Amino acid sequence: MFGDLRRFDTGRTQGLDWFRQWMDEMLPEAGAADIRSVPRGSFPMINVGRTDDAVRVYVFAAGLSAEELEVSLQDNVLTVSGRRGPDAAPEAAAARTDFRLERFRGEFSRSLALPDGLDVERAEARFRDGVCEVLLPKREELKPRRIAIQAA
Amino acid sequence: MNDVTRHDAPQAPADREQEVETLLPPVDIFEDGNALHLIADMPGVTRESLHIEVDNNVLSLEGEVRLEMPEGLTAIYAEVRAQRYARRFTLSHEIDAEAIQARIDNGVVELVLPRKETHRRRRIEVKAA
Question: What's the domain count of chain A?
């Protein structure tokens, strides 16, 4: 399923992230980074795929409900934003001992430029098992079509 | 000469191909009163594709990303590049492995690892002399 995604190898996989981040801190990159690029492992993580008739965006936002995640589109830029609050009441949190706090909490907002030619009016979003799938159908004129070859 | 090259040809590439890449899910671990709690973010994992196991005092948490993807989907951009999460923790002896409870909701796994009865904190009454 994600096997062919690996050919877009722009960085390390998530498991090596801490090491990469540490290395980046030690040896800042000499090359220029995109001014809007986000560090890998930002919340929520996003995958984008394309089929013949649509573009599908997968937002990996565990623990959020459909109401808590806001998906908006403007000028072909898709923005996902929301807030993931603490999972315990403050008085309960005070009574506990924390060992690890790796999960993201707080407000987030991520934007993503989409390819041209999408029919924004017919966009749909679905939430399942912590993954929000946004379906953006392509406009009719951009779908691939077969051209019949006529005999001379 | 041909023999030598044939013998040297390692089988490693084939093995490496089989090695499944895994994601490391972020976790929160905290302790309150009589139990340890573990919360892990595993978006895309369903109740059926989640496997939790305790073997020899090692807790392993594994899950497969199950996404409905149409045929012929090609990637344009990908941050999640594996379809399996895996993480392991060693447990301490006071955890009651039999009584571990787990649930998954919206891609968030919550584990409650209770302490054994004998290791619970107890209050000692101080009697007046």
Answer: 1
Of A33, A47, A64, A42, the residue nearest A110 (C-alpha): A42
Q: If interface means Cβ-Cβ distance under 8 Å, which residues of chain B face chain A?
A: 21-24, 26-33, 37, 39-46, 65-83, 105-108
Residue A90 falls within a domain, yes or no? yes
Q: Could you tell me which residues come within 8 angstroms of residue B93 by beta carbon, excluding any fewer than 6 positions away?
A: B57
**Alpha-carbon span A93 to B71, nearest angstrom:** 45
The answer to whether position A93 is within a domain reads yes
pLDDT in tens, A56-90: 999 999 988 888 889 998 888 999 999 887 766 67
For residue A60, tell me if it sits in a domain.
yes
CB contact under 8 A, B76 and A100: no
| Domains, chain B, ordered by start | 21-119 (2.60.40.790)
Inter-chain CB proximity A60 and B43 less than 8 Å: yes
Each residue's pLDDT tens digit, A79-131: 999 988 776 667 777 778 888 888 888 889 988 888 888 888 889 999 989 99
